[in-house]
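Quick board copy: two proteins, each given as sequence then tokens.
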Amino acid sequence: MDQGSQIGLIPEEPEDMWHAYNLVAAGDSLRSTTVRKVTMESSTGSSTSNRVRTTLTISVEDLDFDVQAGVLRVKGRNIAENPYVKMGAYHTLDLELNRKFTLAKKVWDVVALDRIGN
């Protein structure tokens, strides 16, 4: 893989989540779908909130693997334009089984390449 390239991954079983936990690192960028609560204000001043599914790309700062739930929580700042989330705003993406995510690294080392099977 070239420097700065990305790969789409879909964890299909709990062991895949463990591999993802060991693959994702601070400084990587990660893109995945998420649900955000969005509050809209009308011209009369009343507000309504809706849950909106959107795709975010974050610069990874921290991650936490919940073994019991099989969920990898990846925290970082939004680094791509999005109608619901400001640039630079913090967000946590929950990576779950059978949900695709895209991981980009500046440098893919031998260990990372071996982990994804390239």
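And the next:
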Amino acid sequence: MGSILVTGASGTVGRAVADALVAAGEHVVSAVRDPASGGDASGVSITPGSEARGFDFSGPSGWAKAFTGVDRLFLLRPPAIANVEETLLPVIDRALEHGIRHIVFLSMQGVQFNTMTPHHAVERHLKKRKAPYTFLRPNFFMQNLSTVYRDEIRDDSEIYLPAAGAHTAFIDARDIGRVAARVFTEPGHLSKAYTLSGEQSLTYDQVAGVLSEVLGRRITYARPTASEYSARLAARGATADFIAVQQMIYRIVRLQVSAFPNRAIRKLTGTPATSFRQFAIDHQALWE
């Protein structure tokens, strides 16, 4: 049995996947840009017990070394990568040449209906190559509230997102890690696609209410319009690409595409999905 190469290993989902795989007794290779530091360029650490190896989607010369002794691949698209034809698709081709026997790809919910997304292109390529794949299609991450939107919650006691009154069945990235570990280590998951949602569907008013109770201070949901939200991002120096992605995400949210809970995590792992309240308790210090 070979190792599992986890791309994005110092990020939210990649780290969760590596954590779950190490806990399951697998030998994990954490792909990072700076293996000497045991993390990424900003010093973010990788999972203890995993092996750090250098890997750069834009640097094919290092891929062969990264794949040495590896027979399975967890593949995700870093947010900064838009052109998957020049990055992720060649990685898939190299992995198949290397003899990788299972590629688990972190896709996105509803990708099968959204042909313009880079995730759709990656799924299409994996199918075209008849690759041994499994697609994980998660809902909106709870961790976005503790990372991307953390500062406004911590400093302004406000959630400022253009979701209107829509519901979202948020998912904890740690649950994605648990699912990935099962998919990699159990038979029966090849050529499958799993839509992963939490078991609760919450509005952002309800999210603010849970955070208020956990943090012991009032957190409000501002309900900006899409144009107001984009204007604030632009004023804070966000790039046009980032703003466009945010517009797409919250257009989907307002259409209630992300509203539907399911029990896929429970079925795949044997334990329920993490509730938002438990997530807030676990990450309380990040907003204080």
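Board note added afterward: The first strand starts at residue 3 and ends at 6.
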